[in-house]
Amino acid sequence: MTTTQLSPGRSVLAVVAHPDDAELAMGMRLLDHAQAGDRVRVHCLSAGRPGKDGEVRQAECLAAAEILRIDRYTFSAIPDTRFTDHRGAINAALFDTVAVERPDIVYTHFPDDQHLDHGATGEEVTAVAMREASDLIYFRSLYSRNFEPNLLFVGTPELLAAKQKALACFASQQQLDMTVFTGLNTLAYRQHVHHRVVERFPDDAHGVEMFRTARQIVHATRPCAPIRPPALTISTAAASWPGWQADTVV
Ligand SMILES: [Zn+2]
């Protein structure tokens, strides 16, 4: 299990295939990054069909971005469901995006996914992010396969409410059933986390978003704390060992 302590002021970039992918997979995490002082950008590789459909879907994204405090929400025009035919254009769009953002942390789809657009996005972002960013973290999509999380983000009632409000902005997406979504968001992680660990979650834990870290670079804390001798504790079992002299315990 990996735990991440957020450092204020980092550049966070989430690259997704479709409008609403980011909000669905990591709406709470995005808002938490913003609240920690990080700059958050979402780049969506498709932007809906040209014309009215595209305008509606982009407007939905921008409304959700306001709720989740996303600083920039940008789009490319890769045709929906045709990503595998446009890998060159995806690669060019990604290099343009990272050149502007210089991201510290990149999030994207887990490459093994039933949706071909998600898989192509995960693979192309991996190639670019490994070269251009410090951390690369995959989020779990609805159609991820063989996904074993090693980073779980535990939400709060406020974060989950904001995420639900953001998802409600996607009115054109009838398949977003809020009851099903909330149930999944609340319970899906239980198959990955032992109940002894779940029992230690805060009482107000609400919703869990799941991630898999591809790479995370952690820098040393500066300045160094003064050197102190480690505390030495002898367990009862050790102290009862025959021949042990109790007065040697320090
Ligand atoms: Zn999608």
Description:
This protein is 37% helix and 15% strand. It has a single domain, classed as Rossmann fold (3-Layer(aba) Sandwich), CATH 3.40.50. Helix 4 links the parallel strand 4 and strand 5. A seven-stranded mixed beta sheet has the order 3-2-1-4-5-7-6, sandwiched between helices. The chain contains eight helices and seven strands, in the order βαβαβαβαββαααβα. The structure holds zinc ion. Zinc ion (ZN) binds next to loops.
Summarize the structure.
This protein has 250 residues and is an alpha/beta fold. Helices cover 37% and strands 15% of the residues. Helix 2 (52-67) links the parallel strand 2 (39-44) and strand 3.
Q: Which cofactors or ions or other ligands sit in this model? A: zinc ion
CATH fold-type name: Rossmann fold
Topology order in helix (H) and strand (E) letters? EHEHEHEHEEHHHEH
User: Which word captures the global form?
Assistant: globular
Uncertain segments are none
CATH level 1 name: Alpha Beta
Radius of gyration over C-alpha positions, nearest whole angstrom: 22 Å
Number of domains: 1
Please name the CATH architecture.
Answer: 3-Layer(aba) Sandwich
Question: Proportion of β residues?
Answer: 15-25%
Number of E-state strands: 7
Number of helices: 8
| Oligomer state of the chains in this structure | single chain
Which sequence of strands runs across the widest sheet? 3-2-1-4-5-7-6
Write the CATH homologous superfamily: LmbE-like
